[in-house]
Specification:
This protein is α+β, with helices and mostly antiparallel strands. It folds into 2 domains: 10-79, Rossmann fold, CATH 3.40.50; 84-405, Vitamin B12-dependent methionine synthase, activation domain (Cobalamin-dependent Methionine Synthase, domain 1). Helices cover 37% and strands 13% of the residues. The chain contains 14 helices and 10 strands. It has helices at 19-26, 44-51, 55-79, 88-93, 120-123, 130-135, 152-172, 252-256, 263-292, 303-307, 328-336, 338-342, 378-388, 392-399, and strands spanning 10-12, 35-37, 114-116, 178-189, 193-197, 205-210, 239-247, 345-346, 352-353, 357-362. Strands 3, 4, 5, 6, 7 and 10 form a 6-stranded antiparallel β-sheet that branches. A hairpin with a 5-residue loop joins strand 8 and strand 9 (352-353). The longest helix has 30 residues, at 263-292.
Length: 405
């Protein structure tokens, strides 16, 4: 944008961004107009209004942002120090270890790739409504937020409007939920990768999944340096890994066209589609544990317990802390044929379209937990590039978010 001489503001947002990163790394290299971090797309409306204000008001807002970001940049640089990393060899030597000889991985009841199309009504019990209120800058846990002394009145009014629009969406019928899942024979490959097979005999390779390992020293010298591959049995033990992709946004553009120039309803419909997509991921994972994989067929959790992830197993998503390399979604989508079967596409930067979509892997090990890989060092960058068959420059570009500043 700087080289092209663009004279437009830049808004930065999304799950893998932050105000600190925007202030320290992005704003300093774009001088033509204001650069502003927004934590959620719906909050961009207010920021955009300020950026489009008359010149004097715009400049006042831009100066306020610049001053704030300068302070943030100074703080970031003040505490930035050369990070100490374990060598990749040492991190691998400190991997999580299990007694695989005395553990029998569960065998899936249904392993073929299959399409699942629940109704919105089936997904409703799985919706976590607290993030929905955060979309509207109303912080608090649902349903307690409805009685909050500060935001309770506004939250209650929003909830009333939401119920009306929610029932309209269900009756309208155009917003569809469609997803796909698969569970494949798998084993750990080397130290940090997972190999999937086409059949139980494990004679034909289906795909290799490449993962990253924590490289930061552990303060107590006792905690392991984790990698998702740790949760999969080595060769000689029949284990499995699953994958999924779900969406509740395939027809959303048609629905939004019914509300031209109506920001309130457009934001609400998009936010509801996002909530349904997340609910779909929760709903499908529940069915995987109880039916498709069946390792927890007596599970009976209420919505609060599901939100607190009290169940066995995890579903980490490519691009998020445990597996932060987005291009692994390409492998996942090929395995699932997700574009053809679920109508979800990947952009050139591996974002999902429609946006109201969720994808990830399934791990069944009872000790599997979510974690963040954090920053990695150059030796892991080089090793990952080799394992993925990438040039070091391409690998560096893809792994930039987890490389040292």
């Amino acid at each position: 944008m700087q080289r092209a001489g663009l004279d437009i503001p830049l808004l930065i947002g999304g799950a893998t961004t932050s105000k600190a990163h925007t202030a320290a790394k992005i704003a300093p290299v774009y001088h033509n107009r204001a650069t502003v971090y927004v934590s959620d797309a719906s909050r961009a409306v207010g920021v955009a209004a300020k950026l489009l204000a008359p010149k004097q008001d715009y400049e006042h807002f831009a100066q306020e942002v610049a001053a704030e970001y300068a302070l943030i940049k100074n703080r970031v640089e003040a505490r930035r120090e050369k990070r100490a990393f374990l060598s990749l060899e040492a991190a691998r030597a400190n991997a999580m270890s299990f007694d695989w000889a005395n553990y029998t991985p569960p065998v899936p009841q249904h392993s073929a790739v299959q399409v699942v199309e629940p109704s919105l009504g089936e997904l409703l019990p799985f919706v976590d409504w607290s993030p929905y209120f955060m979309t509207w800058e109303l912080a608090g846990k649902f349903p307690n937020i409805l009685e909050d002394e500060v935001v309770g009145e506004a939250a209650t009014a929003l909830w009333s409007d939401t119920q009306e629009r929610l029932q309209w969406l269900i009756a309208d019928g155009r917003l569809k939920a469609k997803g796909v899942l698969g569970i494949w024979p798998a084993n750990r490959l080397g130290d940090d990768d997972i190999r999937l097979y086409t059949c139980e005999e494990r004679s034909t390779v289906l795909a290799d999944l490449c993962h990253l390992r924590q490289q930061a020293p552990k303060p107590d010298d006792l905690s392991p340096n984790l990698c998702l591959a740790d949760y999969v049995a080595p060769q000689g033990t029949a284990d499995y890994v699953g994958g999924f992709a779900v969406s509740c946004g395939n027809n959303i553009e048609d629905i939004l066209a019914d509300f031209p120039n109506d920001d309130f309803n457009q934001i609400m419909i998009k936010a509801l589609a996002d909530r349904f997509a997340e609910a779909f991921a929760e709903y499908l994972h529940s069915r995987v544990r109880r039916e498709f994989w069946g390792y927890a067929n007596t599970e009976d959790f209420d919505n609060e317990a599901l939100i607190k992830e009290r169940y066995r197993g995890i579903r980490p998503a490519p691009g998020y802390p445990a597996c932060p390399e987005h291009s692994e979604k390409e492998t996942l989508f090929k395995l699932l044929d997700a574009t053809n079967l679920a109508g979800i596409e990947l952009t050139e930067s591996y974002a999902m379209y429609p946006a109201a979509a969720v994808s990830g892997w399934y791990f069944s090990h009872p000790e599997a937990r979510y974690f963040g890989v954090g920053k990695i060092d150059e030796d892991q960058l080089s090793d990952y590039a080799t394992r993925k068959g990438l040039s070091i420059d391409v690998a560096r570009q893809r792994l930039q978010p987890v490389l040292p500043d």
